[in-house]
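[09:14] KT: can someone run the structure on this one? pasting the chain below
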Amino acid sequence: MKVNIKLNAVNYDEFTVNDVDGNLITGLTSGDFTVKLYNPSGSEVSGSISITITELGYGLYRTNFTPNALGNWTLLITNTTYFPYGKSSNYACVQYLNDDIGLIVELLKQYQGGRWRINTAENKMYFYKEDNVTVIAVFDLKDADGNPSVTDVFERRRNT
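[09:31] RB: done, structure tokens below
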């Protein structure tokens, strides 16, 4: 199963370390593991992308890395004593995660649901939250030549 991760953001994953009897192993450090990270083109990039492993406790360990390209990534972690053949995880690196999409939808609702106001003295357009009081964005209004205008608006440029 692939886990969705976000582009250019620190992404975390957890794994356990057990002995042959199933007992959880504690006290391992990052030096006790060999880590290989493969980017979407299949190149091994462990030397150029920082990968950390820390123990959370009770045999639970966390790894993290920051992907720099969209697509499928693979992380292979080995330990010569407990899993010499490795534990691998597959990730689908995407631009936006579900949480991001929710925030984007909420922002669009605010833009569409709130008041819009053109200030003719400033040649600006103000966007308000749904409360019609809180300013969420200001745009400079320009004509086709790039001059401030509210009568022949050709372009708007984000001001704040």
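[09:33] KT: thanks! The helical segments are 98-113.
[09:34] RB: yep, looked fine to me
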